[in-house]
Design goal:
By secondary structure, this protein is an alpha/beta fold. Helices cover 22% and strands 24% of the residues.
Length: 219
């Protein structure tokens, strides 16, 4: 039962059950809680429907809905989840309930207040995203070894920029690094060739959900 501060509300776009399509947990049955709102407008965004709308949910009701599914894995995503201050309460409540929780965040908002049990998947915005200036670089100091940093790459200049950031900031010593090609803009095979050529300590990820079900995360 949730009481006190954890009895707040969040604006929710959708709660659904699917396979995790990205990160080191790819392929695992996961409940996704998608929050409304985002201060960024990346050119390749495929969830712009989560910019507005949705419905208000009490955190207790969110946990009840998550509990309908037989999995320990929960991903809180958006939009940008941290744009709603009660997201921190939700993340803690999910951890307290025994779930293995991950947070997908743009990296533009402060992550230092996120519960340490949560796996943070921090998306560093590249030049071609159109939102490079929104990167909050101090977030890198709030990462643990369990966390992951993701670069979504549109083209070769994006790749070269990400390679430079990776090396200059020694990111691979902080946590796992993910390189992901924008579908239809950068060939995964070409990106794989670059990673091998440069011997980068990164994981190439291709969105599993798109391979299985097209543009939708779920079935």
């Amino acid at each position: 039962m949730i009481t006190g501060a954890a009895s707040g509300q969040l604006r929710i776009s959708e709660i659904f059950y699917s396979l995790q399509g990205e990160t080191s947990r790819v392929g695992l049955p996961t409940v996704f809680v998608r929050l409304i709102g985002c201060p960024l407008r990346c050119v390749y965004c495929d969830t712009d429907y989560a910019f507005s709308g949705g419905k208000n949910w009490a955190i207790a009701d969110i946990l009840a809905e998550v509990g309908r599914y037989q999995t320990v894995y929960v991903t809180v995503t958006g939009g940008e989840p941290l744009a709603q201050k009660n997201s921190l309460i939700l993340l803690k409540a999910l951890c307290d309930a025994g779930y293995q929780v991950s947070l997908e965040t743009s990296g533009a908002l402060d992550v230092s207040g996120v519960d340490a049990r949560v796996i943070k998947v921090l998306d560093i915005k590249t030049p071609a995203s159109g939102e490079e200036k929104k990167n909050l670089w101090s977030n890198l100091e709030a990462l643990y070894t369990q966390d992951e940093v993701k670069f979504v790459l549109c083209d070769e200049p994006d790749y070269l920029w990400a390679r430079q950031v990776l090396r200059e900031r020694d990111l691979a010593k902080k946590c796992s690094i993910l390189f992901s090609p924008v579908q239809g803009q950068l060939s995964p095979t070409l990106l794989a060739d670059w990673i091998l050529r440069d011997s980068l300590p990164v994981r190439l990820q291709i969105q599993l959900h798109r391979l299985l079900w097209g543009s939708q995360q779920g079935k």
